[in-house]
UniProtKB/TrEMBL annotation:
<feature type="domain" description="Cytochrome b561 bacterial/Ni-hydrogenase">
    <location>
        <begin position="19"/>
        <end position="180"/>
    </location>
</feature>
<feature type="transmembrane region" description="Helical">
    <location>
        <begin position="107"/>
        <end position="127"/>
    </location>
</feature>
<dbReference type="GO" id="GO:0020037">
    <property type="term" value="F:heme binding"/>
</dbReference>
<feature type="transmembrane region" description="Helical">
    <location>
        <begin position="26"/>
        <end position="42"/>
    </location>
</feature>
<keyword id="KW-1003">Cell membrane</keyword>
<keyword id="KW-0812">Transmembrane</keyword>
<dbReference type="GO" id="GO:0005886">
    <property type="term" value="C:plasma membrane"/>
</dbReference>
<keyword id="KW-1133">Transmembrane helix</keyword>
<protein>
    <submittedName>
        <fullName>Cytochrome b</fullName>
    </submittedName>
</protein>
<dbReference type="GO" id="GO:0009055">
    <property type="term" value="F:electron transfer activity"/>
</dbReference>
<dbReference type="InterPro" id="IPR016174">
    <property type="entry name" value="Di-haem_cyt_TM"/>
</dbReference>
<keyword id="KW-0472">Membrane</keyword>
<dbReference type="InterPro" id="IPR011577">
    <property type="entry name" value="Cyt_b561_bac/Ni-Hgenase"/>
</dbReference>
<dbReference type="Pfam" id="PF01292">
    <property type="entry name" value="Ni_hydr_CYTB"/>
</dbReference>
<feature type="transmembrane region" description="Helical">
    <location>
        <begin position="147"/>
        <end position="167"/>
    </location>
</feature>
<dbReference type="GO" id="GO:0022904">
    <property type="term" value="P:respiratory electron transport chain"/>
</dbReference>
<dbReference type="InterPro" id="IPR051542">
    <property type="entry name" value="Hydrogenase_cytochrome"/>
</dbReference>
Length: 184
């Protein structure tokens, strides 16, 4: 359903639609907050670092379930990135065409699924470090760190891509993840 809202910078009405539901937005900002906390603020291996990791594990579980039963743009079936979709999107960018997706575009879909897989691997390896069977195993701690650092690198790429796409499409995609609304 399209809703007409007034843009504060412009007296003309602008049509927006609801795209990101509260579950998707809460997942997104929970993960952003948790990554900032665990990568830059909290001491690794300590209580609050672990609790933050468990919070991500719960959020990830909810998001995966929501990917099958949630709203239209939250469902994996809405944005699953087939090779044809990904290549078509890349060719559109190379050719200067501004193909726009209401939900995730194919490259954003690849990034989201990759980040979710890395988050799951980070949660799993972090949890495994607390088990007696792996107590003190440096290889597991190092793997956990490498995966966490990979998330950080990809998160920066994701953020940069969101800013570039916002500029290309003249639409604030970061703000849409706050409000849940995008241009119609």
């Amino acid at each position: 359903m399209t809703e007409i809202t007034t843009n504060e910078n412009d007296l003309a009405p602008s049509a927006t639609i609801k795209v990101w539901d509260p579950v998707v937005r809460l997942f997104h900002w929970t993960v952003v907050s948790a990554c900032v906390l665990n990568l830059f603020i909290l001491e690794e291996g300590r209580y609050w670092h672990r609790m933050t990791g468990y919070t991500v594990a719960v959020a990830l579980t909810v998001r995966v379930l929501w990917g099958f039963v949630g709203t239209k743009h939250a469902r994996f079936s809405d944005f699953f990135p087939t090779p044809a979709k990904v290549m078509g999107h890349i060719f559109d960018i190379v050719d200067g065409r501004k193909s726009r997706s209401i939900g995730h575009n194919p490259l954003a879909s690849v990034m989201m699924l990759l980040l979710m897989a890395l988050l799951a691997a980070t949660c799993l390896t972090g949890w495994m470090t607390t088990l007696d069977a792996f107590w003190g195993d440096k290889w597991l701690e190092e793997l956990h760190g490498v995966i966490a650092n990979s998330i950080m690198v990809l998160a920066f790429v994701h953020a940069a891509a969101a800013l570039i796409e916002s500029w290309r499409h003249r639409e604030n995609l970061v703000w849409s993840m706050v409000t849940g609304r995008k241009k119609a």
